[in-house]
From TrEMBL:
Transmembrane segments: none annotated. Its cofactor is (R)-lipoate. Coiled coil: none annotated. It comes from Brevibacillus choshinensis. Residues 1-76 form the Lipoyl-binding domain. Gene3D superfamilies: 2.40.50.100, Chloramphenicol acetyltransferase-like domain (3.30.559.10), E3-binding domain (4.10.320.10). Belongs to the 2-oxoacid dehydrogenase family. Residues 80-101, 143-182 are annotated as: Disordered. It comes from the Bacteria. Residues 156-169 have a biased composition (Low complexity). Its EC number is 2.3.1.-. PROSITE patterns: BIOTINYL_LIPOYL, LIPOYL, PSBD. Residues 106-143 form the Peripheral subunit-binding (PSBD) domain. This is Dihydrolipoamide acetyltransferase component of pyruvate dehydrogenase complex.
Amino acid sequence: MVEFKLPDVGEGMHEGEIIKILVKTGEAVEQDQPVMEVQTDKVNAELSAPVKGVIKEIRIAEGETVEVGTTLLVIEPTAGSAKSETAATVEKASPRPVSSQPFRTLATPYVRQLAREMKIDIEKVSGTGAAGRVTEEDLRQYASSASAKPVKRSIAPASNNEAAPAPSEKTSIGMQPSASTQQIERIPMKGIRKKIAEHMTKSVTVIPHVTSVDEMEMDQLRALREQMLPFAQKRNIKLTFLPFFIKALVIALKEFPVLNASIDDATNEILMKRFYHIGVATDTADGLIVPVIKDADGKSIFQIAEEISRLAELARVGKLTREQITGGTFTVSNVGPIGGLQATPIINHPEVAIIALHKMEKRWVVREDEGVIRWMMNVSLSFDHRLIDGVTAVRFTNRIKELLENPTLLFAEMV
């Protein structure tokens, strides 16, 4: 028999949530056939059968969170299998991103859980979200059209056939639960939202955050982008301001390498990194995902723009691989298109800094003792005060500011 265990795919993974079991006990499977969908950190992955055989036992259930090394399935190898029929244990597997098969329904772990509670077969629901993703509203519309009754986790008043709840010290005898109490719905903190919460809690617990805010004049960068737009459009490239920021970041990181470092808390060592993998915080239906542009220092502005678009689309449809969301050395969060003047962004541990870009707007500013109108934008830099001093952080921001306010310097400094 072959025991198929939840594999350790590295990068600090300790557990996974079983989203969907694709096989049944007694079913014959081929080697490399998808048998299970699992949520690991911020990536949905399909686990494949390590051998050809018959499913003899399924030891976990959908919705269950299990640790790495937990036996998921027991498979009896059949003739032609690469494994012999002697006892074997399989602990390694190569998870594949879900949605690689077009007939599979796209949905977040929360929506899948809600579908199970509402007793809806999610494969029958038409999705209206990005790339056909099934949303919570899609489930409720489906339930309504099918005259189904959704399962709500709410506190309802006792019916005439039930005993009324015993009065507490704060509740008068005969008083019914308030209307606001009846409207409470309890939703499990799980899946990607749970991982985000754990990661953010660790970051603010371990790292002493300090945030520095500055403003930049953007008129020259806006003019340069306008000049480059026709060339980008010919190559079908969406050219935003973000690629210019990333190039300026890389130049500044090379001059202030401590902001591209990390701290090994176990060994109390500073890890100085000579590569530049820039994470780009991306808002998705699943929550905030941070795909990473690897070796950004070796890519042109157009190449970075293409990479941003490609990774953002993969993030929106849930097709990012673990490799694409790990290994970052510095993160940028572009909230400008949404708005906001400043923030205190939380550092993406184990990195030591993160910069947030805010909305661009026209403001009155003083230049050579005269009031003029300029396109201005604020930036917020959060940094790890264990490693980075305030003076260093401000000088780092000043360098980025210099490069972006005089964008021709970007090309002079590129290597």
